[in-house]
């Protein structure tokens, strides 16, 4: 594992790939993170011509704070003792999720796979491409709840579906075509299911509609909890990629210009990270970079353009 303190401007869209155990804990409402990060992994995505393979660089964190990295056509586990284990090869993943049993879920295009603790890989959804309920087209988000039900954001079909354990056919949860009406989505990306306090709410990044949608108890009738006109940060350049809700109901959202948290009771935004970006590029919407928290709430962010992962320390003093 390579270490450096070189400063990087973090560019492009982000997605949250959160350790599912974190939903049982939450930092204080005033929590902050150090703005100067440290590179902990680099030289990712380097091709033979010296250029970065920038389209796919996704991370997740297991309950032991080992970092899971999907890059370079593989999925690898970076242990705390600096050893590296290859879990899968020949893989180009857009999304990763780790459930409470340490099973790792990832996708390649329309298929979702599971890697169990023995290293065995099985297909759990998306046998073939298409729009039927036993098919998927372009997976852009994965969540697995405590019962093992898999929730999948299928952006090309403009929908979110769920697969109970061992199910062949999925169940349509959200998505009545491409649009901005109540039951419609436009390029849905990250998803999260809030299982705290028996809330069972589904959150969807309705990216090209510039909003976060909430669906309570598997209802297809959602509400926009974050959208234009709520705050100045939510304008036409607000393209949310992923969302996470902590135990206190605080909503974390990554988007084009950074990462912020929304305090629903106070109805206020607190910026966690901001970065400069170059002029918008379409491929960055299609293949966003990602971030994860460890058990101490340190923040890990991928810099796809530079092929690296950077760590931002949680500021403990901010909660004293």
Structure, briefly:
By secondary structure, this protein is mainly beta.
Topology:
Layout: E1 14-16, E2 32-33, E3 38-41, E4 58-61, E5 67-71, E6 74-78, E7 84-89, E8 96-98, E9 104-108, E10 111-115, E11 121-125, E12 139-144, E13 150-154, E14 159-163, E15 171-174, E16 188-194, E17 201-206, E18 211-216, E19 223-226, E20 242-245, E21 251-255, E22 258-263, E23 268-274, H1 282-286, E24 289-293, E25 299-303, E26 308-312, E27 314-315
Parallel strand pairs: 1-24
Antiparallel strand pairs: 2-27, 3-26, 4-5, 5-6, 6-7, 8-9, 9-10, 10-11, 12-13, 13-14, 14-15, 16-17, 17-18, 18-19, 20-21, 21-22, 22-23, 24-25, 25-26
SSE arrangement, N to C: EEEEEEEEEEEEEEEEEEEEEEEHEEEE
How many whole angstroms does the radius of gyration measure? 18 Å
- In total, how many beta strands? 27
User: Oligomeric state of the chains?
Assistant: single chain
Contiguous low-pLDDT stretches (5 residues minimum) are 1-16, 278-287
Features:
single chain; 320 residues; mainly beta; 5-stranded mixed β-sheet; 1 helix; globular
Verbal overview:
The chain is an all-beta fold. 2% of the residues lie in helices and 40% in strands. The strands form seven sheets. A five-stranded mixed beta sheet has the order 1-24-25-26-3, with no helix packed on it. It has a four-stranded antiparallel beta sheet with strand order 4-5-6-7, with no helix packed on it. Strands 8-9-10-11 form a four-stranded antiparallel beta sheet, with no helix packed on it. The protein starts with 13 loop residues before the first strand and ends in a 5-residue tail after the last strand. Residues 1-16 and 278-287 have low confidence and may be disordered.
